[in-house]
Amino acid sequence: MSEVVTPASVTPTITRRRMPRRRVGIRRDVSIAGTDFAVTVNIADGDLVEVHLATAKHGTFGAGMTDAVAHLLTTALRHGMPVEEFVRTFLNTRFEPSGLSDDPDIGRVSSPMDYLARRIALDTLPTERLVSLGIAEPATAA
Question: Is residue 54 part of a domain?
């Protein structure tokens, strides 16, 4: 007798991390090529859990897109995406505004998402990961 084997259905388990009512937030104001941005990151239990990116040019396409990406990042972080995955994805993305930033840790950026990836990496990743991603030089990472 032969037995009929049917493929098993596997449903991935995705759990949404609920954020605590109180969490530590860090806000940084930065200018990229003359466009002002406010970056707010919230940390809970030592992990990055929420990101807000606002621009002074409210109502523009660029403002809407940067806000949408920040919401997507927050949702992904709450569902377990590693911070380094975001950094790798958005590092060196190119669109306007691009150019010099007034952040003393980050000189030139190729987009607001590039700035966000670099800022989050500098704030959360260990120096050996910064070196491997090309954000820090081996000589300056010591």
Answer: yes
For 33: left if phi > 0, alpha if psi spans -120 to 50, otherwise beta; the answer is left
For the chain, give the secondary structure using H, E and C.
CCCCCCCCCCCCCCCCCCCCCCCEEEEEEEEECCEEEEEEEEEECCEEEEEEEEECCCCCHHHHHHHHHHHHHHHHHHCCCCHHHHHHHHCCCCCCCCEEECCCCCCEECCHHHHHHHHHHHHHCCHHHHHHHCCCCCCCCC
Residues 31-46 pLDDT 10s? 999 999 999 998 887 7
Per residue in 3-36, pLDDT (tens digit) is 776 665 656 666 666 766 777 889 999 999 999 9
Residue written as token pair 């590039």: 114
Residue 3: inside a domain: no
Q: Domain residues for 92?
A: 24-133
What is the number of domains present in the chain?
Answer: 1
- Cα separation, 103 vs 120, in Å, equals 13
Does 2 reside within a domain? no
Sign of CA dihedral 59, 32, 52, 84: positive
